[in-house]
Design goal:
Blueprint (H helix, E strand, L loop, with lengths): L11 H4 L11 H32 L7 H7 L17 H15 L7 H7 L1 H52 L11 H56 L3 H15 L5 H9 L31 E8 L8 E8 L4 E5 L13 E4 L4 E2 L6 E7 L5 H6 L1 E7 L3 H15 L27 H17 L7 H10 L1 E3 L2 H4 L1
Antiparallel strand pairs: 1-2, 1-7, 1-8, 2-3, 3-4, 5-6, 6-7
Amino acid sequence: MASPTTTTLPSRATTGLSDDAIPEADPSNTAGLLAERLQAWKHMVGYLEEYVEAVEKVHGRQAKEYEKVLKTISNPLREGHHFDQSLGGVAGFFENMRANTQAMINTNIETEKSIKGSVLPILDRLHKEIKHKAKELASGAQAAAKEVEKLRNVTQKHIELLGQQAAAYDSHGGRQTNSHEDPYVVRRGVMHRLSNQVIAENNHRNDLVSVQNNFRTFEAHILEVVQQAIEGFTQLVGGQGEKMRALNSDILGTVQCIPRDFEWTNFQHRAADRLVNANDPPRSVEAIQFPNMEHASTKALIEGSLERKSRNKLSFGYSTSYYVVSPSKFLHEFKDSDDTRNDPKPELSIYLPDAVIGVPNAEKFNIKGKDKSGTLSSKLTGSSELSFKAHTPADAQRWFQIIQGVTNAAPAPISTPASPVTTSSPTMTSPVTAVPAAAAVATKAADADVKSPVATTTPVEKHQAQENGVTGGDAKSAA
């Protein structure tokens, strides 16, 4: 067979990180941002709890004790950049609280028991709700982000391995001795891992969209509970004096003026570049491109379903599998053509230049060679003769021509009763006489397949091709 037409080694750019297959966006970025936001809300509620607890303790004391109350909210809010700094939001609400608490230093209010029994439990329950929400986010979206990152690393390693094997294929003139290093096999491994990655990415994205949509409701609930707590607190302390009532009513009025979605709406606007856009379409494997995806070494010369007789002498009949002749001159056997459900590893790999092929007899033909797939069966059987049966005699002839073109050898009879090279057919008694014409046809068919591979079909089309029998080679012209 002529040397491969592609001799340029893959560049560093084609074997590096693929923007489509491995996005640069950190999958944990959004989940981490939302987790930090929950921390901000938790600390906000904690600020309120500290405030009310301090009020409860100092109501029976002198005015100077109220200075301790002011200290609980004197520091800026933690993660304060999550809150809108303009008036009318949580940050403005705390500024209002600080001003009113300073005025309360001159008042003495004895409502310790009432505050302890009605206001603090509300805030404590809210604090626990936020903690529970943070745990759900950590076990869900944040854990999924780590899984996505792990799957991306696995995919990137196999893409880099594909670049290495494709480069080795070009540098060695298309000769491969290890079936596991066949770029065709490595590419299918990339597709399998990429499928798992995309499924995890889409699931993670859907989780984040759901979490983000839930945040609006949850934050409205937080503000609603805070408003209820402050309202109850105001009712308790309001009866102690007109001034105290006025001060706390001002606090209540400030928090009630905050729209339920005020903070989330402004946060969405400020962090739009870091939050997931719910309108973005989900990723699709068919739309992804990665380095060496269309490399000549990954395109099958011919592929389709064949029936093969078991090497076990106790077994009878034929079993159907999916077979591929790769540019690396291997005949691979797979269970099927699906790259999604399972990792596609050859169950049988014969290096065709070292094999002997018999002339087809109707739809049957034999190949004698050593299985190099590395499976337990290959180690036990060694070199053996395999009997194949195509769907039609024309299919068998196409497989024979492609394989003969790859091996660059004349067909030879194989010493077995099931061999298609028998003396019962006059046209097959001297298979050597038909070698020049058959070799020329095989060489043209092989060259045509290298130039026009039929490996760009979708998984659905591949399954249909498998059912029809043969793709690649002269399959199109025959159809």
